[in-house]
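Task: encode each sequence below as structure tokens.

Item 1
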Amino acid sequence: MTPGLMIATFVGGFIFPFMISMCWGRLVEAFGPAGGWFAAAFIVGTTWTLNHGVGLIYQSGEAWIDMAWAAAFGLLAGAVYSGASLSKAMPTIISAVLGGTLGALILSFVL
């Protein structure tokens, strides 16, 4: 991987949690539950298009990582950097992992 691809991949991974932390809460405050759906459509859709459609991130097949991991680690790092307690976040992290695993299992049965 060239240095340019490394930088582009890092930027692509940074954009998604940055947009979530900057915009998602404000959209929900402004529009209520519909704001969450707007955020899901616009933030996730736009960053997915940049990362996968335009090809901002480089995926070689050697390592598996996608936007969910970028969001998880980026938001966790931002919260800890802002002074949040990692131990208070553990129930949410465990629930997210279990929910994702259960969703993948159900999807594997359906597909």
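Item 2
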Amino acid sequence: MAKNVERRAALADAGLRVLAATGARGLTHRAVDAEAGVPTGTASNYFRSRDALLGALGERIMERFAPDERVLAELGAREPSLELFTDYLRYIVERTTRQPDLTRALIELRLEAARRPDLARILGDTLRRGYRDDVAFHLASGLPGGAFEVALLHYAMDGLLLDLLGTSIEAGFDPDDVVVAFASRLVGAVDR
């Protein structure tokens, strides 16, 4: 594997742009090379197979979506409350909609992983690590509930993001109102 970390990241970013724009079918090593403006064969030098390329894109998405440690520290220093949970959800929506192509690329990768076992393993490891990190933050913050409630949150937020960044059901609800409802219903369900 080629060692230039900056070039690898630039190629992965180019791959994410291709994936978001054309879907998994349009993602080829040549398309990544063209998008990155590098000589043909460069992407295949860094990512030897299609699964390696797709897996690297999943890892790169998570790197770029990584929460700001300062924001997490500020949130984590607050008293556990419905407001803290709501602000945490708002932060997730803000991070994932600020770069809509990244979220679209992640959705594409998750769908492609359903058809590619090697990608499912690579991407699944990355997604599960993110889920574990969310559970750890939730527990460390003293918020009510645990792993089950965080899983419910993931399921709900994934649907919201799909609707915001894909073809919408156009229900007409403000996304922030939806986030507030998610938070109050999840926290309220745990308090009972």
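Check on item 2: The mean pLDDT is 89. The radius of gyration is 18 Å.
End of task.
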